[in-house]
Amino acid sequence: MRPTTRLLTGSALAVAAAGLVCAPAYAGDTDGLEVFPSSVVPGGQVTVSTAACGAGGTAAAGDASAVGAGSFTLAPDARDGDATGQFRVPPSAQPGTYEIAATCAEGGRRVTGDLVVTLTSQRQPVHPRGSVKTGVGGALGPDPVQTAAGVAALAVAAAGGTWLLHRRARGDGI
Question: Span of the secretion signal (predicted)?
Fold first, then answer.
């Protein structure tokens, strides 16, 4: 019993250590450029914000030329003090991941964030249609021969198990 306890304890410790080692890198990172939505279709509106330009959110110059949108301005937001700006992805943008950048007016600090351009909108849910083929269904599935073979195999296993239990109960051994 003791080796099983050690095995389970060791496994639990390994899982806990892996969780600590693989913690997400963005958990405490607030100095980057936040891109919302992070995935957009061509022609969509994108909002970016950053807290990296200092307390009070000084202005910043945004650069979305990688996706073909050109430059835009990030202005201080009165609510939370972040510098916030918007741009529109051109309808001719190709699918892919693009780097969006902003340079703070004070200090010249440059921050970046990623924007993914897709051809389909992620906001519209896809509803399933038709039946789900799980293998569970009528007694006579798509192949009656396979069904009969499965029933026969179960019958042989049940008969063999009953015979072994009967011998064991009589004391004949296995």
Answer: 1-27
Which of 61, 83, 58, 81 has its CA nearest to residue 70?
61
Domain that holds residue 47: 29-117
Q: Which residues contact 95 (CB under 8 A, 6 or more apart)?
A: 117, 118, 119
pLDDT in tens, 122-165: 555 667 777 667 666 555 556 778 878 888 999 999 999 998 88
User: Residue 124: inside a domain, yes or no?
Assistant: no
